[in-house]
Amino acid sequence: MEKPVLVIMAAGMGSRYGGLKQIDPVDEEGHIIMDFSIFDARRAGFEKVVFIIKAENEEEFKTCIGDRISEYMEVAYVYQKLDDLPEGYDVPDGRVKPFGTGHAVLCCRDVIDGPFAVINADDYYGVHALEEIYHYLSENEDDEKYRYAMVGYRLDNTLTDNGYVSRGICETDENEYLTGIIERTHIERTKDGVVFTEDDGKTYSSIDKSCIVSLNMFGFTHSLMKELEARFPVFLEKNLIESPLKCEYFLPTVVGELIDEDKATVKVLKSEDKWYGITYKEDKQSVVDAIVRMKEQGIYPLHLWR
Crossing angle for the helix pair 33-44 and 127-139, nearest 10 degrees? Predict the structure, then answer.
């Protein structure tokens, strides 16, 4: 069985934050959020990391983190290119937005040949989460179904005080297997509790702050690649007509389809870790403060890679 590989999605445009937030230092030692995810992954057992980036950002990524990490882990780079499309499809005129997380992972098809975990570049997931996903991928293989996993978090551990977030609300059965994900693109904390809106703020509905949500931390066998490749043209055929400039091929959507078709199971591995991320510029200080606290508690050394 191949050893699990860590895949980090870092090709997002970061429009709400402004700038290339994935390589913005979060401590005085110059570490970025990815440093902590990779450090946690390495001590969990991962030995290879794949960065999904834009081609124009490669040198900046290598200077900021890739060259440093390459002393401790095998490093590969994959470009998420707009024109990496199935035969017969072209990029719509005026499109600059990447085609989403499903397309990002599909771009890794030539550098991954075994199980892999997927995380976002700009999210801090916690020590426990990386251990859980590594152990699952090391111990489980496909049989009559694809055997996938995801790490789920309590909603109130994933919110920012500086605006709204997008989260996938997870539904599970009695055995903690995922039965569905409902995408909520606007969730925020208010003085009256946690709420979401689906009509640009005209109406709000309350949501259970303890419900389990997805932060795009999945564990897959290699079988996912053929499914992503087979379903991408179907997605494009419909969505390039309906929303040519903004449609996105979401990874959780494909996972949901496979569950509905009874082709895959997704074990939900619950984490009590608190999420930290920089969705907005105002979030950065809370991340900086959290890193200081965790170093003081001994969770991380002062210098990760010395």
Answer: 40
Chain-centre distance for alpha carbon 182: 16
CA distances from 167 to 11, 54, 196, 211, 235 (A): 19, 24, 10, 11, 21
Q: Which two tokens stand for residue 237?
A: 């055929």
* 285-288: long-range pairs with CB below 8 Å, 24+: 286/160, 286/161, 287/26, 287/33, 287/124, 288/26, 288/27
**pLDDT of 17 higher than 50:** no
- pLDDT tens profile 195-210: 999 998 899 999 999 9
Q: How confident is the model at residue 15 (pLDDT cuts 50, 70, 90)?
A: very low
Per-residue model confidence (pLDDT) at position 24: 81
Phi, psi for residue 39 in degrees, rounded to 5: -60, -45
Domains of the chain: 5-151+213-257+278-296 (3.90.550.10)
Q: Is the pLDDT of residue 19 over 60?
A: no
Give the whole-number percent of the chain exceeding pLDDT 90.
Answer: 80
Q: For the chain, report the end-to-end CA distance as a whole number of angstroms.
A: 31
Closest CA to 33 of 44, 15, 16, 20: 20
Closest CA to 235 of 211, 216, 251: 251
pLDDT at residue number 94: 96
Cβ atoms of 114 and 6 closer than 8 Å: no
Task: Please state at what angle helix 223-242 crosses helix 251-260, rounded to 10 degrees.
Answer: 110
